[in-house]
Amino acid sequence: MIRYLFARLAIALPVLLGVSLLVFLMLHLTPGDPVQLMFADLGASTEEMEQVRDQLGLNDPLPVQFGRFIWNAAQGDFGRSILSRQPVADEILSQLPATIQLTLTAMLLAIVMGVAFGVYAATHRNTWVDSTTMVFAMIGVSMPSFWFALLLIYLFSLQLGWFPATGQGGLNRLVMPAFALAYPTAAVIARLTRSSMAEVLGREFVTTARAKGVAELGVVWRHALKNALIPVITIVGLRSGELLAGAVVTETVFSRPGIGRLAVSAILAKDFPVVQGVVLVTAVAYVLVNVVADVLYAVVDPRVRYG
Amino acid sequence: MRLSTFVRTIILTMLVFVAAPLSVGSTQTGHTQQTNPEGRGGELIFGLASEPPTMDPHTSGSAWTPRVGNAIFDTLVWQAPDLSFQPYLATSWEVSADGMNWTFTLQQGVTFHDGTPFNAEAVKYNLDRVVNPETQAGSAIALLGPYTGSQVVDEYTIQVTFAAPFAPLLSGLSQSLLGMVSPTAAAEAGPDFGVAPVGTGAFIFKEWVRRDHITVERNPDYNWAPAGQGHQGPAYLEQVIFKFIPEDATRIATLETGETNAIENVPAQDLPRLEENDQVQIYAVPIPGAPWHINLNTSKAPLDDPLVRQALIYATNTQAIVDTLFAGIHTPANGPLNAVTFGYSGNVESLYEYDLERARALLEEAGWTMGPDDIRQKNGQPLVLSLYVIAAGGYDETAQMVQGQLREAGVEVEIVLQERATMFANVNKGDHHMGLRFWYGSDPDILDLHFHSSDQGGWNWSKYKNPRIDGLLEQGAQTLNNDERQAIYAEIQGILMADAVMIPLFDHKYVVAANSQVKDLKFDVRTWIWLYDTYIED
Q1: What ipTM was estimated for this complex?
Q2: Tens-digit pLDDT profile for residues B357-383
Q3: Residues 239 to 268 of A: which have CB under 8 A from any B CB?
């Protein structure tokens, strides 16, 4: 297992390098000049802008710029943001906790709600409970998340005044954003759990367990669930990328700090160092989550062994 | 390990991650406190539509830096509502006969928030800092023009020298871009000064939580407000929190829930609802600079023909656009400068008006006759023009209305919607026939940036090349006599409009909505928020 983990992490390095190169090329080869954007409101002459570009090293040939980025990144220096002149590492680290808080809460909520409702629907198949749950699940995968977020603000902030609409800090500012972010993923998990569970509950070993006299609760939660979870784990691993992406929309609508919003504003401003930094961090997170998913397979299914 | 143990561990770990930041989270308290004898004070929570990229006034090119920066930084000169220049950190000034040496006498007893004394040395540091390439200033450098250096005459007198007479100087020195920063703090912090600004202003920077808010608190030692204010001494407000809420709907909601007591950039469609609410007051402040306009690329056929360009202006009904899209809150424009801008000349008002017949006649005269589908053509080519627009902020709807109006004259408009970076890159290259935009500016010298022939790849979106205009622009920058200056810029505006370099659309306004408890919320001549006299009434 340990050797397997090392191998997985070693492969991650070329992946990260490739991702960085791809993003670098996309940023530099698409039209747009961060310096002109920086002075768009208050204006600056061509000479002044050229001077700033020189200072920032933006007139150097592309391989030089990329090489400089990789060389510095390998030593932990991600450069400074073009817009704010702040170290990229500081910008990202200051925004990361809020996004982690939001995404982890949303993932937890999604798994708990999704699995619970999915199991319940599977064990009460073809009843009104099942139908209602699946209707809500269908709404969850079809509805745009920003619309749902605005709806929550309208209902719970404006009309009922239960929660503040914006910002970060305190449980009351986390509830709506986490729920808005979790809902679509919970819906996917619910539907998948339901069908997976239904299939597992039809298998021979379940009939055997029931015949042996195991209580229904034990049959479902101890025996069947482990088997049903395997496709769910896969989905959660893949959806983690979507959760990070969905965090962008949620953070914008609820005006929460986070790397989602950091990424969007950096992309729009063509703030190269920040975009590169955020992409790298996100790629690392994605790699880690999927390694964890793979480990979970081994935990859940004793037949899986890594050599 | 057993699945249940594993799951339990995971859940506990996740809960720790979730709970830890919660325990250090902060919630805003919204109650006001009255502490001074007149009973004025309170806390203002202002919802901004965007976050300033940096709080260093010299390096920023964003309008949000001065919106927050006005509270933290003072300038040498103050521009009053009547556009005259008044004492501020400089008590008086005079210029030499040749126009190249300015002497400023500075106010005494002024200190920066970190205790550094404000004096001639500090002013010299500031001006030299702006022009130093390492500072990476952009917009601020233009405000100093042909600056060559400053000399400290004595502790409170400084002489500033230029390579040529520079008329826009006082205007520049009154702008937040040339706000006075603490030499000690700036030298020590280097590029990090942008996140820890230190000035002499009525409010002291307290904290900046990125992507959330900036907090400033009252400077108890403040005693050097500019002329014409409602009181003396420190400001009334105890604390101001600038919150960044980019989503329009959310920002308006915060005003209604009480999470903010003032917000900026209220979309036009929400104005009627807010106007009916007697708990809310609306401020609509005209913004100096250029009105919303469409630059016409004079280097690209068929817009190289002035008759065609003039026809486009006659065919545009700006009043209809203002009434339909902006609830009538803006005013139709007539020239390259907004009516409230220093140097605006009324002579442009008589040049054009909405006249569809005239437009059609001009196009006919230019050889563009009606073709199939009611689109004009000439030598078999249909009259199709591209209109480049940023995909945000109400520009796209305006473009659509213009498209509809020009269609009636037989001109087909192709709207090219792009995000800012791409649009700028394309317009720089001259891919466009027309480009929609506006810009901020306080001195007519800003026309140099946009219409001087030397700038063909930057802000000169009309790709305009007119030696006469070049000469007038240079002359305008060097003429110190106000009346002569006005005359020069009047001529410039007249020529630009006669040459139809742009379609002026409307003079737009900065729209702010505030809770009726917010009193004396003011704006400086550039419409940046001015909070010195503001207070919250219980």
Answers
A1: 0.80
A2: 999 999 999 999 998 888 999 988 999
A3: 252-258, 261-262, 265, 268
